[in-house]
Amino acid sequence: MCRYEANCIKDIVGKISSTLSSQITNINEEFVGIETRLQDFKSKLEIGSGGVRMVGIWGVGGGGKTTLASVIYIEISHQFEAHCFLKNIRDESSKYGLEKLQNKLLSLVLKKKQKLVGSEIEIKNEIKRRLSEKSVLVVLDDVDDLKQLEALAGSHDWFGEGSRIIITTRDQHLLSRRADTIYEVSLLSNDEAMKLFTKHACQKNKPVEGYEKLSLDVVSYAGGLPLAIEILGSFLYDKDKDEWKSVLAKLKDIPNAKVTERLKISYDGLERDEKNLFLDIACSLRGWWLSNAMRVLDACSSHPRIGIRVLVQKSLIKVTDEIIDIHDVIEEMAHYIVREEHPNHPEKRSRIWQARDIDEICAMGAETLMENNHIEVLTLQSYTSSLPSDVIDTRLPDVVANMKKVRWISWDNYPSSSFPKNFEPTKLGCLMLIRGRQVRLWQGKKLLPNLKILDLRGSSFLKCTPDFSGVPCLEILILDYCKSLVRIDSSIGYHERLVCVSMKACAELKKFPSIMRMKKLETLDLNGNFRLLKRLKHLDLLGCDQLEKLGSDFFDKECCLEVLSLRVMDHKGLKIIGWKLPQLPRFLRKLDLSNRNLGDGDIPSDISGLFNLQVLYLCGNKFSRLDSRLSRLLCLKLLNLSWCRKLVELPDLPSSIAILLAEECKSLQRVGDLSCYKCLWKVSLWRKTNKLIGGERLLYSMLQVNALEDRFMSVQLPCEPFKTSTFSDTRRLITLQLPHNWYNDFSGFLFFANQIARWGSGFCSIVIRQEMTMNSQPDHDQWEAFDKNKESYEHSLVGYVPFSSLRRTPCWNSTSYTNVTFQIDGQDMANPKIGLVPRRSAICECSEFWDEGNVSNKTFDIIVDPKSTNVHIEWNHGFGTDA
Asked: 454 versus 491: which is more confidently predicted?
């Protein structure tokens, strides 16, 4: 090729590239918010990396999937030998069949009309034969069936080297079968949504003056969904303010038909059970914890295990941080679907969730009330009737009694009327009457054969529970904070299926019925005859103020109880203080005997036989000494003696002890040598006044022996009170130059401070950031020397963070750190200093390190933020309030 020809080709390529670049810029300006999404998606395609990649674009209907695919197609299609964009595959395949789409695919790619004939396998092989040698770009838009993918992009080897196949769909599950990666389209931000809305509604880049608030209302309703924003914006164009207000008011009850029609495609593609599940969630369960919602749906036989996953995959709901959420517009669509079942007859609809519908039903005649047997779900978060109270009291019982098909009733502040005699919905699986005003739920025995959950928490007027003999499937009974509850019906003791009974803070309850057959019970928050409860793992009697005793044989020898709390909240006037403690279950891992007025010699003798015990709380008791039996608890990791104000010396401890807490022990004058406890890493002996003899020696020995390479350390000691704080708002930054070879010569950072006062947060936040040079920090500080003189350890608060704990943070790069700044934020602290601990030749393994994070808040928490170059450490040096 001569130089002239080469230059001509170069000019042509340059002009084409310039033209394409101009077109792409115009396209990007046309579609609001497309630029960032375009760049993110292009990275998924890995253009130029070779191979064949199938990449899915997944998201809610109307979320911009096709738009994104169209823009990327225009931008990169010229880089391939051949390309095609198959639109609306869902509609096209249902109307004309897959064979026509297969012919269309080949015709567009090969730029020549094709007519494939033969069997299904023969046609697929022909597509593979003709395309496997070509680098192609294929976009398959709006795929909703796996058969469509199998017919049009059966496998990677159908296409030549460098090919890229883009698939848009609302169903994530389809992509998991074929796609190499999936890109979820994000909805528009508030700024992007406003820009798109004003473009369609005002033909401008900002709202028309005087329409700003109305524009915000529309954008808020649309929730970042491009489809809804464009349709509503175009509809409101050239309308006046009154018309805008009218449209917004109407949307609360009747969503826009065009938006609903597009979104309803995903709903129409569901199976019948999945549709019912979606409507249950959209009408009643938005914002619920997933675990609680699953429990209710299971009780109502809605089969949520697989169904919820399907709804997430089809972008109809989201589960974020274990909480169920749903887009506002999709929620409105669901409400519209239910209302359209019978627009003018709420009594004939499948679900009721608004008080006005209940009021309308109650206002109907007696004959009409008989027709409300279509209602399956009744959920009212807070009920305030617009009808006179006498009408509600008279009509409401009949309304509820006629709901023969109801599966779930959830009603906050249910009125005072009891359920009538004919209230026996055989399909009812869950009955939740939170903060109800009933004195009695119902009279006599009721046959509710499928009721699994009965939740009456906060029913402060309830005097007694109903007869449970007609509810054989009951699994969960919640009576928390029923402060007037006096009696539990004896029939409860015969329920073999009960798994959880919760009766927290039922202060008037004095007796729990004898337990005869509750063999599956796992959680119980009240007393009774526990000898048959073989599976019970957790028992907490906190707040059971009127219980008079627990027999010595309260627990069976084969009891598997692991967590037992006999803690008392307050000493005044409680019968529980005088108990003689029962024989303790031998498999206990955690025992709380706080505030039980225990004196010298009152610790149960059988405590030394608890060989699995890891956590022991003895806070707020009256003993002055503890005998040596505690040293026999060979698995004990945490001992809390805080607020034992008569305690004069610490007991002998087992070698396994990791955490020792004895805060506000005012009679404790000295602390002995704890250096023999090699696993000990956290000690808190804080009190407001008086230093502790031996505290400096304790701190010195722990720094020498216990501050290991792979173990944290936290020590809190009392000190003399400070008159003023030297830790002012301007003195929270400490900038230091790291010694040469610091990472190899030292094992971790030390944080020193004096605590001025406590019963603040007991919490400190430390941020470590790298500085490029010390020249920018002329007033730098000095390292605190790791002095071996034990009398120099005057600090009341010391924390040690090993370098090894920071390796998990992406930003921690030991080779690049030479100068660092420490930002320390903590309440009531003075004289903060930073030190380094020299590395010792004998390094203990961290296998003995016991982290209390499963008992309470972690002492040290390394916060990982991939977007930050800083190291963030949260230090909780107190024992907290849950001990």
From this structure: 454
